[in-house]
């Protein structure tokens, strides 16, 4: 995924909620004070979020000079200096928290995604994200997933059809739901969530573009892979964690969606330190 186009507005909002009418503590520093600072990553991580970090200081003070030592998608060793800054002390202090918040959050998503990608290395299966993202961070986290080696699923409700259990119940059947989708939105990709092998067979017969195998056990998942005459891409979902993801991939499914990589993340430990 390329960089999203809402970075500026995201940063604007972050600075508004943090700085408000002014940084009262930074006012204690002499206006002409200049400083150098480094940002240290205290743990192993995959970097994501440089553009947001840069935009924070662009909006706070364009005179701040930023020198990166890593690219988005790079693996960072523990205790590495990832970026250095030079500029007015007040500006560095005012932008610090917002800039770090973006990088520590997006790097957390990239890092966790990469852990899943690494676990299934050697298979033909891809790790997918979901819509279970932090509110307002959808595009940013989708970008971070790509930095970690994952694949983006649909962005929202507007760019792909995903017929789930409640849609099927309301429509009457999988077949009816797919027929309605084809009539109302021709040319749009259709995925169907199935919970039993019989539903999988119905989705195959109705020519779904992608079929989700939701909470299938491994044996039934293997059965679906082996009985897929139209070679419809299959996505496994439910019960996925770092302990189970490899065995799921080894069934031969094409995709594994993981909500955890965007919703259950621990921020990467970053700190900014002024040089003495």
Write the layout of secondary structure elements.
Blueprint: H1 7-19, E1 34-41, E2 45-46, H2 50-60, E3 65-68, E4 75-76, E5 80-88, H3 89-119, E6 126-128, H4 138-147, E7 161-163, H5 165-171, H6 174-184, E8 190-194, H7 197-205, E9 210-214, H8 218-226, E10 234-237, H9 245-249, E11 255-257, H10 260-263, E12 270-274
Parallel strand pairs: 6-11, 7-8, 8-9, 9-10, 10-11
Antiparallel strand pairs: 1-5, 1-12, 2-4, 3-5
Can you give a write-up of this model?
This protein is α/β, with parallel strands linked by helices and 276 residues long. It folds into two domains: 121 residues, Quinolinate phosphoribosyl transferase, N-terminal domain (Aldehyde Oxidoreductase, domain 3), CATH 3.90.1170.20; 141 residues, TIM Barrel (Alpha-Beta Barrel). The chain is 40% helix and 19% strand. It contains ten helices and twelve strands. The protein has a six-stranded parallel sheet with strand order 6-11-10-9-8-7. The protein has a four-stranded antiparallel sheet with strand order 3-5-1-12, covered by helices on one side. Helix 7 links the parallel strand 8 and strand 9. Helix 1 packs across helix 3, helix 2 runs antiparallel to helix 3 and helix 3 crosses helix 4. It is elongated, with a radius of gyration of 23 Å. The mean pLDDT is 97.
């Amino acid at each position: 995924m390329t960089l999203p186009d809402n970075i500026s507005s995201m940063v604007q909002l972050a600075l508004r909620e943090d700085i408000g009418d002014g940084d009262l503590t930074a006012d204690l520093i002499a206006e002409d004070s200049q400083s150098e600072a480094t940002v240290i990553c205290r743990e192993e991580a995959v970097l994501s979020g440089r553009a947001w970090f840069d935009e924070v200081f662009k909006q706070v003070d364009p005179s701040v000079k930023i020198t990166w030592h890593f690219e988005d998608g790079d693996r960072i060793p523990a205790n590495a200096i990832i970026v250095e800054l030079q500029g007015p002390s007040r500006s560095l202090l005012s932008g610090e928290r917002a800039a770090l918040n973006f990088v520590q959050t997006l790097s957390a998503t990239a890092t966790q995604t990469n852990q899943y990608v690494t676990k299934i290395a050697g298979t033909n299966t891809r790790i997918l994200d979901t819509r279970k993202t932090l509110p307002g961070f959808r595009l940013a986290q989708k970008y971070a997933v790509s930095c970690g080696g994952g694949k983006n699923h649909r962005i929202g409700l507007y760019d792909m059809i995903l017929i789930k259990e409640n849609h099927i119940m309301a429509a009457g059947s999988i077949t009816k739901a797919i027929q309605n989708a084809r009539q109302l939105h021709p040319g749009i990709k259709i995925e169907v969530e199935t919970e039993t092998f019989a539903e999988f067979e119905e989705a195959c017969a109705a020519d779904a573009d992608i079929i989700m195998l939701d909470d299938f056990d491994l044996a039934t998942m293997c059965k679906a892979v082996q009985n897929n005459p139209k070679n419809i891409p299959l996505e496994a979902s439910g019960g996925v964690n770092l302990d189970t993801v490899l065995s799921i991939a080894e069934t031969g499914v094409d995709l594994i969606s993981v909500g955890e990589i965007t919703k259950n993340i621990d921020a990467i430990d970053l700190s900014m330190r002024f040089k003495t």
